[in-house]
TrEMBL record:
Top-level taxonomic group: Eukaryota
Keyword Membrane: yes
Name the UniProt record assigns to this protein: Uncharacterized protein
The keyword Transmembrane helix appears for this protein: yes
Keyword field: Membrane, Transmembrane, Transmembrane helix
Membrane-spanning residues: 69-91, 103-124
Organism lineage: Eukaryota, Sar, Alveolata, Dinophyceae, Gonyaulacales
Amino acid sequence: KVLAPGPARRREDIEEAANSIMSVARSVGPFDISSDLKALDQGQIVKWAEKDLLQRMTTYRFYIKAAHALLWMGMLCAIFTCSILLGLYMMEQFPNTPWVWRTYSSIVGFNGGVAILFAVWMWCSSANPV
């Protein structure tokens, strides 16, 4: 059967293409999912959840340790900054009493050193510094 070019031939080409697409869709598309669905094993789902949970806990432990270290460093920087700045202020405002700023700076500096030792001791003595 030979058809002349025109609307009838185009309609036949379109129908042929649509039929080809539908046959492919039936074999690999969403139409064949319902007939070929396999149930997942409950044990496999539990293993996936366990692996995901362990990964999250590892990440959480890293971030909590980093947060603790940064918090301690921030507090120590604040202590030493106060020691230096207030010592300089006292040295400038009270030039006739040099022992005041020296005593203040040494006391605060000593306490900062003790805080460093305490932070290292806490970090080393506990497995999970929470």
